[in-house]
């Protein structure tokens, strides 16, 4: 009687396989240890040399500001999170739509793609005050700034995925009379989804940066506003506390995108193993 595959695997080896959700935590262990060491050295160095808090606060002073100002920081983080979410979704839609149009219509693509590259080289920080002048201090200028910062990696990565579809499969579909739109929908777009997710991961980090830059240019709320206001008051612990909130917000959005990819873009997740 032949043994099943599970019979030939040592029991110890099966026991060592960690559940997938905990593998990331295990891999993050060295980074956590290094972060703790750096924070301890930071604290000790500033205390040793008696560096004033308005120059560079200690980690404990930053933690104190995080606790003391948490209601204000939470309200500001909610404002920034809304800007990031709206801008990110819109930039993903715009980027994916441009990539599909460029791949489907060759003449349109030859005209649009160079303009995309030229526009990407425009310094986005210079656009922030222009958008504020045109659209005021509300949500719109922040969303538009996020879109112009984040749409390009989405479009570029999806375009690479669309153009790298299996040429043999494309030729087979053409031989049976499939139209270009059918090839696009049945072969190219499904093939491009892992590349699209790679671009979306870049876009979500740029969206956080774009929201903060937009708030620097003109805002009355948000983490960028808190950073700018606290810096003018020399409240450096609050500045760093707001920076911590920005970083946590970016990490939260990034891993939300990763979860979405792992949960729904199954072949993209299998490709990484």
UniProtKB/TrEMBL annotation:
Main location: membrane
Keyword terms: Cell membrane, Membrane, Transmembrane, Transmembrane helix, Transport
Database matches in Gene3D superfamilies: MetI-like
Family matches, as InterPro entries: MetI-like, MetI-like_sf
Domain of life: Bacteria
Entry's transmembrane regions: 24-42, 84-103, 115-137, 143-162, 206-226, 238-257
Gene Ontology cellular component terms for the protein in this record: plasma membrane
Protein topology in the membrane: Multi-pass membrane protein
PROSITE patterns: ABC_TM1
Name of this protein: ABC transporter permease
């Amino acid at each position: 009687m032949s043994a099943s595959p599970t019979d030939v695997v040592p029991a110890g080896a099966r026991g060592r396989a960690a559940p997938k959700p905990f593998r990331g935590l295990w891999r993050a262990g060295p980074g956590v240890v290094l972060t703790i060491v750096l924070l301890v050295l930071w604290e000790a160095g500033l205390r040793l040399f008696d560096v004033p808090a308005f120059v560079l606060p200690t980690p404990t002073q930053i933690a104190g500001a995080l606790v003391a100002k948490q209601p204000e920081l939470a309200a500001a983080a909610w404002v920034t999170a809304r800007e990031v979410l709206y801008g990110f979704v819109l930039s993903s839609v715009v980027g994916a739509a441009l990539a599909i149009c460029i791949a489907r219509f060759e003449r349109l693509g030859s005209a649009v793609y160079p303009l995309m590259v030229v526009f990407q080289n425009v310094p986005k920080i210079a656009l922030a005050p222009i958008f504020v002048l045109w659209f005021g201090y509300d949500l719109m200028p922040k969303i538009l700034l996020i879109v112009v910062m984040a749409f390009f990696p989405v479009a570029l990565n999806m375009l690479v995925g669309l153009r790298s579809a299996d040429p043999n499969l494309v030729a087979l579909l053409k031989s049976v009379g499939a139209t270009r739109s059918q090839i696009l929908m049945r072969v190219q777009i499904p093939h491009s989804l892992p590349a699209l997710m790679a671009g979306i991961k870049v876009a979500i980090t740029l969206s956080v940066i774009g929201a903060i830059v937009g708030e620097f240019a003109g805002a009355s709320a948000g983490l960028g506003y808190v950073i700018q206001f606290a810096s003018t008051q020399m409240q450096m612990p609050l500045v760093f506390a707001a920076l911590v909130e920005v970083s946590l917000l970016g990490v939260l959005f990034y891993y939300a995108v990763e979860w979405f990819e792992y949960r729904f873009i199954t072949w993209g997740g299998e490709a990484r193993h």
